[in-house]
Amino acid sequence: xxxxxxxxxxxxxxxxxxxxxxxxxxxxxxxxxxxxxxxxxxxxxxxxxxxxxxxxxxxxxxxxxxxxxxxxxxxxxxxxxxxxxxxxxxxxxxxxxxxxxxxxxxxxxxxxxxxxxxxxxxxxxxxxxxxxxxxxxxxxxxxxxxxxxxxxxxxxxxxxxxx
Length: 163
Description:
two-stranded antiparallel ribbon; 49% helix; globular; single chain; alpha+beta
């Protein structure tokens, strides 16, 4: 089910999802149908966004007003654009908040919906709290919450290997 959900959001079809997950096309078709049954608003919004894109000359207008051109043959990707656009806007706001908190010089890398920082060992707890605060905010009344994780000398230490 998770593979079907991600595939629908990122614009893949039954065949692509089957190839990527190793499941049969029949199984993926059932999973897609179950996603549509459980979350009908996703399909409904996708169709609405596609209609609006046609009205705006194949341009999707994000929740924050950014204009994203769509390929006429790939209008199904509008859900992907909507999701990634909001994620980008959240990360952008978080980066502005991190700069305002005076922590930008510790930033090593923004990664999708994460940021990687390097701080002196004695400051790690304070920096982690400040990052959580900078990355927690409301977006149009929807709470965006962050939880900081601290690791060792490398990013890999957070994922089980300290390379």
